[in-house]
């Protein structure tokens, strides 16, 4: 999905920077089923792309932490792709943030911060519930029709099948652990893979 962000005229930009108070443009929350979603930001001028741009374009979690991303500039210099370095977690909310400190090569500054919230939802894996317990933690997944089998992997380990009721008791799970959830059809074809982080 492309979201256009525009550099205003230099004169108008100067007026907004030095006279108008700082403002922010907020988009409606987007929903993606892709845990590796790449966001594209289009500008109407060539962007000044340097190390400082990483401080001005980033993805933030709901708790305020930066999700690791890699920025890629298009050949014409007017589009930046934001690639996640690791998958987004299912059922979690994020914000793509473009601060005012983005410049065109001509030195024109954005006139407002832009925030686009988004959430990752599964298409086949509808929800994941993990209830931490010091002895055995219950992991439960809900899936759409057409899902014949669900497996999970803890911190990149081997896949473990959930029972027919889509639950499984796991020993030793801790807050911060990452669970990968795999949904298969009746022919053992992978329908979807999502990631989930265990919270307190």
Layout of strands and helices, then pairs:
Layout: E1 2-4, H1 10-18, E2 24-26, E3 30-32, E4 39-42, H2 53-56, E5 57-61, E6 66-67, E7 69-73, E8 79-84, E9 93-98, E10 113-120, E11 125-131, E12 136-143, E13 149-154, E14 160-161, E15 167-171, E16 178-184, E17 190-197
Characterize the overall form. Answer: elongated
pLDDT average, as an integer?
86
Oligomerization? single chain
Q: DSSP strand (E) fraction?
A: 35-45%
Topology order in helix (H) and strand (E) letters: EHEEEHEEEEEEEEEEEEE
The low-confidence runs, each spanning 5 or more residues with pLDDT under 50, are 4-22
First-to-last CA distance: 33 Å
Helix/strand-derived class? mainly beta
Gyration radius from CA atoms, angstroms: 21 Å
Tally of alpha and pi helices? 2
Structure commentary:
Strand 7 (69-73) and strand 8 (79-84) form a beta hairpin. The strands form four sheets. Strands 2, 3, 5, 6, 9 and 10 form a six-stranded mixed beta sheet that branches. Strands 1-4-8-7 form a four-stranded mixed beta sheet, with no helix packed on it. The radius of gyration is 21 Å and the shape is elongated. The longest helix is centred in the first third of the chain and has 9 residues, at 10-18. The chain has two helices and 17 strands. It starts with a strand and ends with a strand. It has 200 residues and is mainly beta. 6% of the residues lie in helices and 44% in strands. It has helices at residues 10-18, 53-56, and strands at 2-4, 24-26, 30-32, 39-42, 57-61, 66-67, 69-73, 79-84, 93-98, 113-120, 125-131, 136-143, 149-154, 160-161, 167-171, 178-184, 190-197.
